TrEMBL record:
Chain intervals for the UniProt region annotation (Disordered): 1-26
Protein name as catalogued: ROK family protein
Species of the source: Massilia mucilaginosa
Family matches, as PANTHER family: BIFUNCTIONAL UDP-N-ACETYLGLUCOSAMINE 2-EPIMERASE_N-ACETYLMANNOSAMINE KINASE (PTHR18964:SF149), ROK (REPRESSOR, ORF, KINASE) FAMILY (PTHR18964)
Family designation: Belongs to the ROK (NagC/XylR) family.
Domain of life: Bacteria
Pfam families with a match to the protein in the record: HTH_24 (PF13412), ROK (PF00480)
Amino acid sequence: MQEISPSALADDGASAEHLRPRGSNQTGMRQFNERVVLQAIRLNGSMPKADLARLTALSTQTVSLIINRLYEDGLVIKLAPLRGKIGQPSVPIALNPDGAFSIGVKIGRRSLDVLLLDFVGTVRMRFSLSYRVPDPDEVFTAIARQVKLMQAALEPAQRGRINGIGAAAPLSLDRWQGLMKLAPDQAARWNRLDIARRIEADTGLPVQFAKDTAAACVAELVAGRGRSIKSFLYLFVDTFIGGGLVIDSKLHAGLHGNAGAIGSLPVGVAARGAEAPAQLLSTASLLGLELACEQAGIDPMAAYDERATQAPWAGHSAAWTEQAGAAIAMAVTSATCLLDLEGVIIDGSCTRALLDQLMGAVARSLENYNWEGVERPQVLAGMIGSDARALGGALLPLYASFAPDRDVFLKLDA
């Protein structure tokens, strides 16, 4: 794990000693077991040491020693004793919400989100900025300002517990310039930028980077339906639709970090001499609803808020969901035949009401396919929503330092 720079702590004198690597660089089985215990509490909630020992297959003595160390480091707390049973009352052990913090940054094609996350996954502070076109100067200035404000909002001792920043953004913000109405000079600037290094330079905190839809998939994997579905295709409907692929409870990045790039799937059959078939992103992205609203002379940004299902936008949204649902159903069918998926999870930056309409359209369209010879997967709405990308980003530094399996999703920038 990267250490927080001394300059970031100079004002409060806090120590980052408690953020030492816990089993991440061959420091020994003791630190690995600490991660195992922390993960057991994170996934199962507070419990007494005896229950932790049974769950982790560690001895009661080992768990007791680990809990004492974690308690001294401020990573766990002891709750009120459980009384009413035979013998001494047992003391449940829980994660300390103030034990560690991380910051998640999502740079999108239409908005910026910055979240401050605590050790139990609660969002303590949030900031959002909407725009029609992402300007690098505006975006990075806002990020640096919000990180400073979030640091200032914490107590001095808590600031030293900020574990780092997880940044999520499309791999190519400069792509599809015409559709996005992105000026060539702005596109060129994004193409030259190393987002993680720029944020590090501006904030003094270590930064990990992930593709935005992969980060959203991480959030669903860790905090949503992914906790009960081992293999699934994840779709995130945003300005451009994208996705991620989880196999055996691990995010699969692929050779170029693009596994699950569902938006690039063709939605037709290519023919010699004919124009290439459209990609899924051209028919199932919120940009399509934006353009329909713009052509009708109504606010296109309603695609991202509750107005989308209200007059005068409702009719355009209904037409878009039918078109997008049919295209997504085709992609789901093809992916299932190839990957034998347990499930498909669909989420997005739209409202729940619009997502519900889209889910209905997908379900109706899936009925039109022949499922003989393949098991039809369950298709479910995601649980995180528009926060998914920033939340997934914020989880990266926490899991890098405190989760026992670093290969779950830490190779996203390969």
